[in-house]
Amino acid sequence: MESCLKGCSAHLGEPSLLGHVRLALEGEAEQGKGADVFIHEIFPSAEEFARYNHMPIEAAYGVMEEHTTPAKLGRVYTIAKPRLGVGMHFTLDDDLIDPLFQRWRTTYDGPVLLMQDLTTINVTFDYIVVRQTRADLLAWPAPPSELPEGLDMSTGEPSKAQRPSWLTETRLPMEP
Q: Is the pLDDT of residue 15 over 80?
């Protein structure tokens, strides 16, 4: 578990908390008291997990021993009382989302979000705004502002590796 103060952007007010541990713990809930945003993994039921992963139910129960169900996460958030409780690491599927929220609501009635990749959460003293980041997934990465110290980007000496003749003979000629 780590404070988002170390890596989250646009944080104001009380610390935000990222909990991605294998089990929901009471101590974790106590540490998260008063957080603006408390992010924690959430998992479907063992029965759903078994069905979607084509595995025996006994194996799914074993997996669930290492993950947090919606009802367990609701109990964590009931203790912590964050401004926004966030579930992550969940397969977004039309057949799973409604049951997840129904089970989540059996133990917690505060504001919640089921996040997905590229979810952005902006926090101010007055508001928490959630949106999906729009990104060009095919864009080239931005150049670094400066190269890390000690990183040598020069080409160096050419490789002394020899290409096998059978490979050289099948090479397509370069266009002019």
A: no
